[in-house]
Every structure is written in C-alpha cells, then in structure tokens.
Fold each of these.
Amino acid sequence: MAKILGAVALGLGFILLNLTGFSYGALQVGFYRRKCGRSDVEAIVRRVVAAHFVKDRTITPALLRMQFHDCFVRGCDASILLDGSNSEKTSGTNSNVRGFQLIDIIKAALEKACPGVVSCADIIVLATRDAVNMAGGERYIVPTGRRDGFISLSDNVDIPPPEISVTDAIAFFAQKGLNTLDMVHLFGAHTVGVTHCSFILDRLFDLQGQRGGKPDPTMDPRLSAVLKRRCPLKASVDSPVNLDQNLRSANIVDNSFYKEILIKRGILQIDQELALDRRTRPIVVGLANGTTFPAQFGSAMIKMGSIGVLTGRQGEIRKSCRAVNPHSHRVKSTHRTTTIN
Ligand code: HEM
C-alpha cells in the first residue's frame, strides 16, 4: 500500500512539474506555454532561425556572441539591442556584434502571433539555443520569462580584450556568478565563428616589442607563419580568421576548440592561455578527450542566460527590440533611457 501511495505521489509530482515547468529563480521552463493563443512561441523562434541558418551558418557565432555581450552587460535584458547615439551597440567592443536583423524578424513574427507577449531578452536566448543546435550542439532546455531593460549605455560595456589573463578572466566571470568550470565551458563558443586579424597582430608580430619581433611562442610556429600571411601588418582590410582552426569543424559546435588549443593552435591569446594555466588546463583536457562538452556547454549557456534577469516592473515587453516602449514609465522618469533615433 505504502509503495502504491509512494508511486502515486511520485507520478503526481512528475505531472505537476510538467504542468508548471521547472523554475530557475525568476525564470521558468515553458513560460510562454498557452500565452500566445494557439501559437507555440518556441516553435516560431525555431522556424525563423532555421530559415536563416540554411542561408547563413554564421548566425550561430553571431547569436552566441550577442548573448554573451547582452548578458554580461546589465544582465540578459536585451540592452544590446537598443538603438541610440550612445547605446551599447555603439561601443567599439560591440562593433562586430551581428544578428540584429534576425532578432527583428523573429520579433515581428512573434508580434504578429501575439503582440506584447514575448520579450526581446528571451528571443536572444531562444534563438541562440536553436542556432547552437542547428550547428551540431545540444538543444538545451531554456527557461524563459525575462523582461526587457530600459537602459543601454556604451559606457557600461566592459567586455575585456582577448589579452586578458586567466586570473582576470576568472574574476570577471565570478562577478557574474560563474565559476571557472562555467567559464571554460563557455569559451567553447569559440569553436565557431571568427576573430578579425587586428585582435591577433600582437601575437604574430610582437607589436609591444617584448619578444624581439618574434611571434608568440605559445602558438604553433607553423600556424603563426600561415596567419602572418593572412594578417599582414599593413593590410587595408581587417580579415577574418576562424577561431577553431580545424577546418572541418570550424562551423560546428563541438569540442574541437579544446583539441586545437591543446596543440598550440589557439587563436586569441586568452584561448591559448586556457590550455596552459594550471587551473583551466585539466578542464580543457577533460573536454577535449571526453564526450561531455555538449551537455556542459548547454548548462553553462543556461547559467549565463540567467545573469541579472529582470522581472515584473523592473522591465517591460518591448514592441520593437530596438527601442523602449513609447509610454514606458521609465522614459518619463529618466533621461538616461535610450530611445530610437
Ligand atoms: C573574457 C571572455 C572573452 C573574450 C575576451 C572574448 C573575445 C573575443 C574576441 C576578441 C572575438 C573576435 C571578435 C571579432 O573580431 O569580431 C570573439 C569572438 C567570438 N566570441 Fe568571444 N570572448 C570571450 C568570451 C566569449 C563567450 C563567453 C562567448 C559565448 C558564450 C563568446 C562567443 C564568441 C563567438 C561565437 C565569437 C565569434 C563571433 C563571430 O564570428 O561573429 N566569447 N571573442
């Protein structure tokens, strides 16, 4: 009898969890279920992302970087999407962040299905999840319910440069509640996408004059020789270089980034340092040789997606992802708020 009661209780608990969704702080899995008439919000996002992915696979790195730059500055509040003469977008660090038009298209599709329901902050994390999945990564389960912020200022953008030390990177991630493991997992995003030559010229040509003009010895000399030709010192264009130097997997979300940095083929200085520092190297070795990367990357993305989330009146559901709503109470009460130009 006790066993039967236990089983019934377990079953009920399971049903309840499925009905209510798991919650992650303020966020909830399935937050939009039954909130958009007969439409399925997550399916709409996926459909638009899929239609773009077949035309342009680089939307995966574009969205991953967008989510990182959104969540690390004022939290995951879509502040990176706001237009304005002094908004986050205008900061030099964000000059190559891409994907804004895709977010607009997703937002338009959702506004058509159910106006004023889905936040731009949620669109970023849902679209990123789908793009990661389409590029070979795991389809991790994304809790939703974020609201959009009112403020976006270029001065708030404090994403560090690629010369950051491992010590400072650990501290930077810790400020946001992410530990060293999370950090190394998140750097796995550099398994797709590109850097521009300007970020690696010092490694190739010793611009600081600290190595007698020689390339960074932590880079495989064969790779630095190739990259010196790709990224000449006095080039007129800032060419792109794959962050994952394994050509066959440069557009695939897999663990190849870790394998490459273990053989001195990291592109950014911080990427290479992860394979050298005693605190991060064991994690890199585990990821390079194991099968856990897809799940761990997904968990780390979920964790990054919950940084500084806004709820209730702290935020709003924007009508356009590029501007705070015209009648938002914040627009009247603060001139720091960015509005569309
Ligand atoms: C301290 C941490 C980090 C630093 C210093 C850093 C630095 C950089 C730099 C310099 C680039 C090249 C940008 C360009 O030339 O356009 C880049 C690209 C990229 N980063 Fe990071 N990154 C960091 C963490 C992350 C994290 C946590 C993610 C995502 C989870 C991420 C995702 C990406 C992606 C996907 C690209 C390629 C973008 C594209 O192809 O458009 N990065 N990163």
Amino acid sequence: MRPMLSLLDVTLSYHSLSGETKAVSHLSFSVEEGEFVTIVGPSGCGKSSILSMLAGLIPPSSGSLSVNGNIGYMLQKDHLLEWRTIRRNAQLGLELQGKLTPENIAFVDHMLDQYGLGDFKDRFPSELSGGMRQRAALIRTLAVRPDILLLDEPFSALDYQTRLSVADEIGTIIRKEGKTAL
Ligand SMILES: Nc1ncnc2c1ncn2[C@@H]1O[C@H](COP(=O)(O)OP(=O)(O)OP(=O)(O)O)[C@@H](O)[C@H]1O
Ligand SMILES: [Mg+2]
C-alpha cells in the first residue's frame, strides 16, 4: 500500500540576502494510513519547514515528496476570525471551497455538539477559553474532511495543564475520526 506521506532524501535551504540556511538535510521517512507520527526536536531544527513542504507551500531544494490525500494544516495559532461566531468559523473552509451544503453544515454542527462546543456555536471566539478555541480550530480543519492532518504545535500557546488535557482530547478526536496525522 502506498504511504499517505513520504519524503525521500529531502533537503531544503532558505536563501536570503544574509546567505543560505539549511533547514532540512537528506531527510527520508514515511507515514502510513492511520498512523500518528510526531517529530521531536529543538527550536529551529526544521519541523515547521517539513510540514510546509508537505502542505505544498514551499518546494524542497532537492529530493522528492509524495502526498496521498487531502491535507488539513493546523498551525500554532488558532487564527479564528474574531468577528465570526464559532459555527461560522468552523464553516470557513467549506465556505471558501464552495461546499457549504446542508449535509456539510450538519456535519460541522454535529462535531461542535460532540466535542463540547454545542452551547457555544453562536458565541464569538473571545468568549471561549484557549482550549475551546483550539477545538473549534480543529473542527474547522476537519470540516473539509482531510485524509491527512498536519499539526504544527497547535497547543504551544496554551498553559501546561490545559495543553495536556487539550492534547489528550484532540488525540482522541483524531483517532476517532480515523485520520493520519503528523
Ligand atoms: N522563511 C524563512 N527564511 C529563512 N530562513 C528560515 C525561514 N523559515 C525558517 N528558516 C530557518 O530554517 C530553520 C528551521 O526553521 P523551522 O521554522 O522549520 O524550525 P522549527 O523546528 O519549526 O522551530 P520551532 O520549534 O521554533 O517552531 C531555522 O534555522 C530558521 O531560521
Ligand atoms: Mg516551528
């Protein structure tokens, strides 16, 4: 079976006026369907760069990548739009893709109910806790039914205790939805 994600001998250098920075050097790995793989390393070691290449935002300098499915990319900041309600934030990806069908609207409402935001659908992001905001951002990412989730330290803005519980909750949600995650 073809892996969901794979990198083969990938190198990435950034070029700027001050010179060249090698962010990734001869990296190879793959992620199979349903796996939850974590990259661990110090700040600046190239984690976000790897995700950006997999998301197609920057091309590798050499080597090859393959992605076998639709990608949902969840960033460090939740990027909820403060002037839209939680429901309308969660629907944003669908709206941008022109897929705001009654079926998809019901799918989003169902996830909001299921993941503890049922009573907050018509509230604004500023009325939610950090952990609730992250759940709303995850539902927005899941709403477009990605096969693969790229999660770039989406909980790092939360305090330690909240981070533990939100990471746990989100891990459960991802397993329940049967997603492949990096
Ligand atoms: N747009 C850019 N232009 C130039 N250099 C960059 C750019 N983005 C990242 N870098 C450099 O590439 C290297 C890897 O950065 P990257 O953001 O991938 O690290 P990271 O592992 O995600 O770090 P952190 O844990 O702090 O988020 C760093 O040396 C960084 O300075
Ligand atoms: Mg990073």
